Amino acid sequence: MKYWDDVKVGDTERTGTHTFTEAEIIAFAREFDPQSFHVDSEAAAKSIYGGIIASGWHTTAVMMRLMCDSFLNKAASLGSPGFDDLRWLKPVRAGDTIYVRTTIEEATPSRSRTDIGSTRGRTEAINQHGEVVLSMNNIGLYRRRPAAETT
Amino acid sequence: MQYFEDFPAGRRLDMGPFHVKAEDTIRFARQFDPQPFHLDEEAGKKSLFGGLSASGWHTAAIGMRMIFDGFLKDTASQGSPGIPKLRWTKPVRPGDALRLQGVVAASKASASKPDRGFVTIDYEMQDQQGETKLRMTATHLLLRRGAAA
User: Fold this and answer.
1) What ipTM did this prediction achieve?
2) Distance CA B88, CA A60 (A)
């Protein structure tokens, strides 16, 4: 188990990949974000995007899954209070493959609870062309290593 | 159809209610955020959330749906360049009835593209008790009136 105490400024994690299909882009958008350029190929072709693109919230959800699978579910993660400066920099389309790269920029012990610490990191999703499609400054909460437990 | 010009600073928007169902929070978490406190009541009780809670990304996606149904579907929306700030202030739980309020904080025509403009909206999501669940500042991209869409 990886605790807050094991996280160091400068640490970088790189996740596995996910390839988006048109069916999953449309299914997500129908449920949460049915703007025409996410669900209707004809309307999307006439939009500023020139074709169907994934909802930005679909991209963030996939980012979360990639992070869970590659490191978060092996860590003493306690969730997150939020994020700053999320940018959807490039559209994500069917057939695009992304991975996520996250680098720890700050690690701060909680002032009020000795068993918790937080991190801030720069997290980016990168497509098969090496383009950053999404970036954000995210906050994570982790349990600290219990005193009785050693590495 | 509403355009960029219809969202001056100070305009208020009211959205919801949206009813959160347990099967939906667990389905979303299985697909996108399979951390134990989003999947299992017992694990949720032992976590900081004190019970089963929706993934924050599910909460954000629900917010998006409330925004779409509340006003965005009738606008010349062209998506969003990003979210300057988002805070999950309290966990969203199955059974919650969520409302969302928005206030236009800023409205700015694009400097480079005369057919569009950016509208920044401060959103606050509350549950049936009036507890704030989420605060978010979002930037919307909208076509200007008369732009050839």
Assistant:
1) 0.96
2) 15
Comparing CA positions, the residue from B67, B36, B66 lying closest to residue B51 is B36
- The more confident residue out of A87 and B49 is A87
Collapsing DSSP to helix, strand or coil, A80 comes out as coil
pLDDT tens profile B35-78: 999 999 999 998 988 999 999 999 999 999 999 999 999 999 99
Give, rounded to a whole angstrom, the gap between the first and last alpha carbons of chain A: 9
pTM of this structure? 0.96
Q: In chain A, which residues have their Cβ closer than 8 Å to the Cβ of B81?
A: 87-88
When CB atoms are compared, the residue of A48, A62, A77 closest to B32 is A62
**Side chain identity at A129, as an amino acid letter?**
H
Eight-class DSSP state of A36:
H
pLDDT at res. A148: 74
CB contact under 8 A, A86 and B86: yes
Residue A88 has what pLDDT? 98
| 3-state secondary structure at position A70 | helix
Domain range for B93: 4-143
Length of chain B counted residue by residue: 149
Preferred mutation among A25, A30, A32, A135 to probe B, highest tally of B CBs within 10 A:
A32
Q: Does B83 touch chain A (CB under 8 A)?
A: yes
- How far, in Å, CA of A34 to CA of B64, rounded? 9
* H or E element in which residue B46 lies: helix B41-46
Q: CB neighbours (10 Å) of residue B84?
A: 17
Whether the CB-CB separation of B142 and A48 falls below 8 Å is answered with: no
Give the count of domains, chain A: 1
Q: What range defines the domain where residue A111 resides?
A: 4-149
- Where residue B95 sits, what CATH number does that domain have? 3.10.129.10
